[in-house]
Design goal:
alpha/beta; Rossmann fold; GMP Synthetase, Chain A, domain 3; 2 domains; 7-stranded mixed β-sheet; 3-stranded mixed β-sheet; about 35% helix; globular; membrane; KH_sf_prok-type; nucleotide-binding; GTPase Era; cell inner membrane
Length: about 325
């Protein structure tokens, strides 16, 4: 029997609210993923202290009775010459033309010398030319600097683009997040929700599990090794009777020596990565998880377009 309760798509989606897409962009390691997690009230994007942790665009959904804000966490803006980095930049720059508003995030605590700071702002000015939506300048980590230094920074960054607002925040502890939310709501339109009210992201559980494994590789290995590593979930099976999710995942590296570094003496490093990842995946999925990890060598995987497609680019 046909249900005629909903006469239009808007009826099905519910009444109009403040609803819009908002891209979070900025230099690498500015705190974009931390900010998205803070606004969501839960961890969706992986976070490390190393730049260029985020490779794909991650979507997070902030739901309220009066609004829905769809946040896009993007890779850091940087000069790119390798295929992987080029794809990361394509993802970030495409986001600038697809949204209702842009949050341009900078880390004001970075102790850059004047020449380096001037170079960074020159690069940022080039990226800002691609912004087609109203933008908010978000000054992150203001809790780590002398407040007297803040005004000159605001004046300097404000020259780069006609920002609709400037909001100082600490993405880590949430200071200023409420003010930022108010400014976002001033910029996004009224309309139907993009997504149901009970989901925080459109990312699949497989993708999020792979990202968590990659985060642990970043956190638990040397300075350069994480950039040579990728993660793929080969199998994701739920056993409702046992209340268990079994995940088979592969960590892909470029050289045999890197494989040895990830496995570690007696397999201890891989075990450490697996234990840390399993705990986070269990917290995310609300279920017991059996996580099995393998390490595979694939030379120059970051230059292989077919493999990059497997990673979601």
């Amino acid at each position: 029997m046909q249900n005629n309760e909903y006469k239009t798509l808007d009826d099905f989606l519910g009444k109009d609210v403040k609803s819009g897409m908002v891209a979070i962009v900025g230099p690498p390691n500015a705190g974009k993923s931390t900010l998205m997690n803070q606004l969501l009230g839960q961890k969706i994007s992986i976070v490390t202290s190393k730049p260029q942790t985020t490779r794909n665009r991650i979507l997070g959904i902030v739901n309220d009775d009066a609004y829905q804000i769809v946040l896009l966490d993007t890779p850091g803006l940087h000069k790119a010459d390798e295929p992987l980095n080029i794809e990361m930049m394509r993802v970030a720059l495409e986001s600038l033309s697809e949204v209702d508003a842009v949050l341009f995030l900078v880390d004001v605590s970075l102790p850059l010398p004047p020449k380096a700071l001037a170079k960074q702002r020159e690069e940022l000015a080039g990226y800002m030319e691609k912004i087609e939506s109203p933008a908010i300048l978000v000054l992150n980590k203001v809790d780590l600097i002398d407040k007297q230094k803040l005004l000159p920074m605001i004046e300097s960054y404000a020259k780069l683009f006609p920002f609709k607002a400037v909001v100082p925040i600490s993405a880590l502890n949430g200071d200023g997040a409420d003010n930022l939310l108010k400014e976002i709501l001033e910029l996004i339109p009224v309309g139907p929700r993009y997504f149901p009210e009970d989901i925080p992201t459109d990312a699949t559980e497989r993708f999020l599990a792979a990202e968590i494994v990659r985060e642990k590789v970043f956190l638990l290995t040397g300075q350069e090794l994480p950039y040579s590593a990728a993660t793929l979930v080969e199998s994701f099976k739920e056993d409702e009777q046992k209340k268990l999710i079994t995940i088979h995942a592969t960590i892909v590296v470029e050289r045999p020596s890197q494989k040895g570094m990830i496995i570690g003496k007696g397999g201890q490093k891989l075990k450490q990565i697996g234990t840390a990842a399993r705990k986070d995946i269990e917290a995310l999925l609300g279920s017991k998880v059996l996580l099995k990890l393998w390490v595979k060598v694939k030379k120059k995987w970051a230059e292989d377009e077919n493999f990059l497609k497997e990673l979601g680019f």
